[in-house]
Please model this.
Amino acid sequence: MGKDILKGRVTRYSIPFFDRGPHLRYDTQDDLDRFFSTLRTTRSWIVGSVALSVVSVLSEPPARSNLNVLSPYGQLHEWQDFLVGMCGFVVVSEAKCAGAYLNEGGKFITFQHEDRKSLRVTITTSARPQILQLFFAAPNTVQQVAIGSHHIVMPYPTMTSNQEGVCGWRPMDGAHPAVVVEGHDSYQTASPLPGAVVLHASTANWTRACGEACPAVERSARGLKGIGSCNWGGMDGVDAHRDANLLSLGRSRLYFRTGAFCLNEHCVFSGRYKGS
Model:
């Protein structure tokens, strides 16, 4: 997808959370610009169903009602000031991170819009001054897609954009409420709904090679050679910049993979490989 299409999609899936109605479009865009400015200044990323909807190439999923943000330690007050003080949200729940995010997450806090109660924003804070470890702690590849104020990051770009994913080291146990991916059953084998996701427990029973999802291949984030990323342009009212998280990721020594070993007989990295 081109930059204009990506920017249009980012706007489409973000603007419902800040839409003040047809007679106040200036304020709506102003709030949207402030949101992405806050995303930039707090070094945060959009994740979850909104991020996945933006990059899906097989369909154009319906608008989402959950906006999920990963934010570094110490930045929660910035989000509270913005969402509560400017956008009409109120805090409805707050808890410590659990499940897959137990070690890397601090807490998650959910905001609900006072008038349009179906709209929610969840801010998940990292236990560290940056969010990279929290991002890679996601229990499946579907949740490893992020949108910054100007960039999109996908460690598994082909699979994710085709609305397909693989569970990682940890099983899907329902104990990770911070990131919501709507419209799919965790282990379904078909994708009957627009925007639905096929999420595999592993690649063991695939009838094709694993490709970028192979659990036997450890990938490095160094230099961003193993990371899919692109510049979607950013909102017109937000100063252009290099994404701080993306820069940190390219300089890091982070390694990532989907499992410990490969059991797919169609994959050359598997001990069960039956190819020639």
Notes: Confidence is low (pLDDT under 50) at residues 170-194. Residues 25-41 form the longest helix (17 residues).
